[in-house]
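Trying the structure run again after the queue cleared.
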Amino acid sequence: MAEHLSSHRAEGQRLLRELGQRLRAEREARGLSVSDLALRSGLSRRYLTEAEAGRANLSLLRVHDLARALDLALDELVREAAPPRERIALVGLRGAGKSTLGRALALRLEAPFVELDERVEALAGAPLGEVFALHGEEGYHRLEAEALEAVLREGGRLVLAVGGSLVTRPATFERLRRACRTVWLRASPDEHFERVLAQGDRRPMADRPRARAELEALLRQREPLYAACDLVVDTSGCAVAASLQRLEQVVAPDGARGPGT
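Done. Tokens:
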């Protein structure tokens, strides 16, 4: 009995933490301060701080007030998401294999595959090139954070491929790491470069004779950030099939597959 109560209490604490994280993410996605949300919801600033930290035992009526203040349906705020281990986020520079391996892994795990940049384009109503031209890098990253929250609100298992620069945004990267099991797809600079060219993308060389050197410098700069991921899979010198096998062994070492297998 005591063990059951302890387990029940631990589960309740986990749910409160997750609700607090979701509450904070929704508030930040709307550009609201704690004081702003307190004013909108009629709750105290101190209570909201405790709620976001997962320490407040929120009543249904208070959760309803918060959902209304955030323009959310009640079930959107309290919906229990899949555990982080069931959401896989692939991280790395362009050419790492995030799209190719992500689709293949999602098929093996019988989970949806999502390209975050495609969600950014849908949100902006424009291709990425236009997003950067119209809104700049800061605008892109604001849309990226908003798109990530929308994906996470959907709940459930998934394999997610994110843009290579997401790791440079501490708040967004931390949100990704809390909600998903992150995997850095690592490769050498030469392989990154050659893979992009093999896909028919000439942009790395367009009017940039030092493109390869710039890519090497960018990888060196981001390596400490990528290394903060939960897992690392080195795809250097590997064909797609071998890289997929390595990735599967890391994310599903027990050979687990989708629910239908």
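The mean pLDDT is 83. Worth checking whether this holds up in the mutant runs.
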